[in-house]
Amino acid sequence: MTTFEQVPVFQCEFEDDRTGLSKETIKRALADNLFYIQGKVPATATPNDYYMALAYTVRDRMLQRWFKTTEVYTKKGVKVVSYLSAEFLLGPHLSNNLINLGIYDLVRQVVEESGLDFVQLREIEEEPGLGNGGLGRLAACYMDSLSTLEIPAIGYGIRYEFGIFDQEIRDGWQVEITDKWLHLGNPWEIPRLEETIEVKFGGRTEAYYDEKCRYRVRWIPDKVVKGVPYDTPISGYNVNTVNTLRLWKAEAPESFEFQAFNVGDYYGAVNRKVVSENITKVLYPNDELMKGKELRLEQQYFFVSCSLQDMIRLHLQKGESLETFHQSFAVQLNDTHPSIGVAELMRLLVDEYEIEWDQAWQITQNTFGYTNHTLLPEALEKWTLSLFKNLLPRHLQIIYEINQRFLGQVRAKYPNDSDRLARLSLIDESGEKYVRMANLASVGSHAINGVAALHTELLKRDVLGDFHELWPEKFSNKTNGVTPRRWIVVSNPLLANLITRKIGVDWISHLEDLKQLEAFIEDAEFRREWRQTKQDIKGYLATYIKENHGIEVNPESLFDVQVKRLHEYKRQHLNVLHIITLYKRIKDNPNIEITPRTFIFGGKAAPGYFMAKLIIKLINSVGDVVNNDPDVRDRLKVVFLPDYNVRFGQRVYPAADLSEQISTAGKEASGTGNMKFAMNGALTIGTLDGANIEIREEVGEENFFLFGLTTEQVYELKSKGYNPWDYYHNNPQLKQVIDLISSGFFSHGDTNLFRPLVDSLLYHDPYMLFADYQSYIDAQDQVNQAYRDQEHWTRMSILNAARMGKFSSDRAILEYCQEIWNAVPVKIELEEYIQGRA
Ligand code: GLS
């Protein structure tokens, strides 16, 4: 195949309007894209047209690098990391790409000199919300770090037509609105129609003997769906590497429609087309019971099959044989969602490429790594055998075969241990039979990891305990990280500038350099600037809240923020119990001295999760009372900001004084919001859960507000028999708070509204709010005290930011590269005319 470089006419060896970085070329490019891409002139152009023209102008400046990167990766010997994830929660592209290309200020200036409002254009971008929360956002941070570290990588996922729903709050309740993020077009993606791949579903299998008399199985599907790749460039910071995120869209193949014409079943064919294309319609919530969600298994298989077929194509294109597939690709399973890949790679190798089982199995195990992201039993994926058999009959056979061989090994190692066999089996036979996806992922991978030290320990002990006993060498911990590009430079330019003025710019790609800030801790002027920066950012947020939600908040008050998915284990309602405690103190003594606080909440509840939705209603109802009670005199404010997403995260993390990380110990695998807050100088109030433990270790226990039971204590109390009722009776403060909710005080006298929540707490309290209540209140009282000493608070804030180096996703990705993927950086060199201009 000829490459574009070999065709002279396609060599753009001059600075033109698509590559140039002078003010004039950028200005011309804007006008050009407005006219030639959007088909508009200024007289008819809408703000969206200008945004599109700007986005294309930026994308154009990534294309040379993108092509070059892709080309280098097609060379023999380059190992590519393939990150398989059902979710990529990217957030807006524009600012991030401008920062990574090093042209943010330049482009902003040009846009403004052209008479346009840069901020307005920036805000027009619809963010691709192709994820639920932490897991999807982690995948996005990891893509950023892979590019920044110049690691050859490709992200594979699903191009959902509707991403995570938009949230509105009506009468205090969450209402879900479909997220039509593609309605005005997406300038960041390029469809690669010619690289479409076919995926089979359903039907039956048939055994046969091939020409060499070998036993084989063929799959005769009853449906074929096309996967069309849409590629998005992922730029690295301050490097030439631009990796690819390839998302698959489902389309029905034309051949089926033609057939339908012939048999006169036109509408039947149209219907089948619609059904096929439904596969990539909508993102599912990850915290609802997955039982019976057939479409979700279809989605998973669809994107995994497309991706593996794509990798095989690329590998063969290099002129390599499939025996070395694992040397070309390190495939990481982001949770169990893509774990059907284990059976699919076996099917492709054995059935389609006729490789012997044992060798195929070696290739498969050497290829995959599996990251577990949750210990919650309800989130561990399993699919009924009947669902599996109907949708993927061949894969079920392959899973049986893998299982039989695997259990043979287990039996040899642990004779007469049928309980162990039952626990390790890929098939759950305790009741209705299921395929256990975590077991499939564990057996089919050479490496298994958790996402924070505690989580990995619990994984080894409980959820995957038997696997750990069998293969301790497969297990390791990879504590999560987040990208400082998006989470400091893009979201908090004021702080980023202050830091850069003090220690230079290297910290942006070497976050451990933030340590150097500690040298300035005794510098009163520096502390003043730090405090002033936080104050300014809080002022912006206050203005935003006023303008968009009509609520007046005091920027001098302590901004106490809890933004994350709504879930009982994350205990937003514990936070509410604290608010009511403070409110009660004011009511009992209106002149009490109290540190003014603004409580800011944000987060979506899964549409089918009743209790989480009731917690949203409770937050809003308490807010209504507290915010409007004259006795409070604005000392407390409660705001629930609707539609929490990446963009809003960028606004709120920098403005926080206090970060609420208050999950029941042992429940939050890691958390990543905790990292974003602390990097931006917020102090944490938190339990010994997930990455909180490591954050506290890094920032120092004196700079962290700790409370609550440890994981061990949680287990112990549970096994002894936990009785929330005792706590309620023995703690008058807690009793008053609960009674106030029960009395209908926050629900216009309706004593039923919050009954399910109160009863759940009183009679079950599965997440042990009552056990942790007093310790939480005490820690919050310490926060109040500490905040009054602004000098001391500022020191703690600086130390938090300065000691967050460990939590860069660059560190995490380096560990994956060295310990799991065996992947090394590959420098992308550019022709001189492009080099050095960004
Ligand atoms: C999650 C965990 O709940 C988070 O604690 C973790 O930080 C994140 C990324 O590892 O993964 N697992 C999950 O299913 N959703 C998450 O956000």
What's the CATH class label of the largest domain?
Alpha Beta
Share in helix: 40-55%
Cα(first) to Cα(last) distance is 31 Å
Bound molecules: beta-D-glucopyranose spirohydantoin
Within CATH, the superfamily of the largest domain carries the name Glycogen Phosphorylase B
Q: What is the CATH T-level topology of the largest domain?
A: Rossmann fold
Low-confidence stretches: none
CATH architecture of the largest domain: 3-Layer(aba) Sandwich
Oligomer: single chain
Number of strands: 25
Q: Count of helical segments?
A: 33
Averaged pLDDT:
95
Query: What percent strand?
Result: 5-15%
Q: What is the global morphology? A: globular
Structural class: alpha/beta
- In this structure, how is the largest beta sheet organized? 10 strands, mixed
Radius of gyration: 28 Å
- Domain unit count: 3
Question: Describe it for me?
Answer:
With 838 residues, this protein is α/β, with parallel strands linked by helices. The chain folds into three domains: 21-73 and 92-126, no CATH class; 74-91 and 127-479, Rossmann fold; 520-805, Glycogen Phosphorylase B (Rossmann fold, 3-Layer(aba) Sandwich). It is 48% helix and 14% strand. It is built from 33 helices and 25 strands. Helix 25 links the parallel strand 23 (658-661) and strand 24 (683-686). It is globular, with a radius of gyration of 28 Å. The protein starts with 22 loop residues before the first helix and ends in a 17-residue tail after the last helix. The mean pLDDT is 95. Residues 133-135, 138, 286, 373-374, 379, 451, 480, 668-672, 690 line the site of beta-D-glucopyranose spirohydantoin (GLS). Beta-D-glucopyranose spirohydantoin binds at residues 133-135, 138, 286, 373-374, 379, 451, 480, 668-672, 690.
